[in-house]
Amino acid sequence: MVPGYNHNILYKGVLFHIQTEDSGVGKPQITTLLYRDGTIIASKKTDYSDIIRIEMLSKVVEDLMKEQHKEMLRRLKSGEFDGRAFAAPDVGNPMEESVSPRITPPVDANQSPAPKPVNHPSPGQSLDEIILEYLASDRD
Asked: Strand 5-11 and strand 14-22: pairing?
């Protein structure tokens, strides 16, 4: 049994990860997953239970794994997953992080004043711009 293949691929300036694994003869299945930022963008599973008794099974499975891994890479590079991988986050989009509403606790007269509100970075703002904005602010 081949443990698997893992590759990081830079596509359109974004890092993707492709992972291919064999579950072994107990569960004869090859699984390939395509990730962006830890989110599964695409998957492919191939059952090979019909060939588990052939000679040189490990070599055949290794070849199937390599081909399936390369196929996922080709599909990524062809733009097949662009709609899912580069979709703008909106309601119901699995790539969007959920945000809980802020709840303001009751004010205690003996409490120190509340900290200044945090300015969240604007979309598209670079890390350098965020740091510069923070350093230029009057927060301690």
From this structure: antiparallel
Query: Quick one: 17 exposed, middle or buried, by C-beta within 10 A (0-12, 13-18, 19+)?
Result: middle
- How does 69-89 read in b/e, with b if 16+ C-beta sit within 10 Å? beebbebbeeeebeebbeeee
- 9 vs 131, which has greater pLDDT? 9
Where is average pLDDT lowest: 10-24, 62-76, 81-95, 105-119? 105-119
Pairwise CA distance, residues 67 & 76, whole Å? 14
3-state secondary structure of 73: helix
Residue 90: predicted pLDDT:
54
What does DSSP assign to residue 135?
Answer: H
Q: Give this prediction's pTM.
A: 0.62
The secondary structure of residue 12, as a DSSP letter, is: T
Residue 12, φ and ψ in degrees, nearest 5: 55, 40
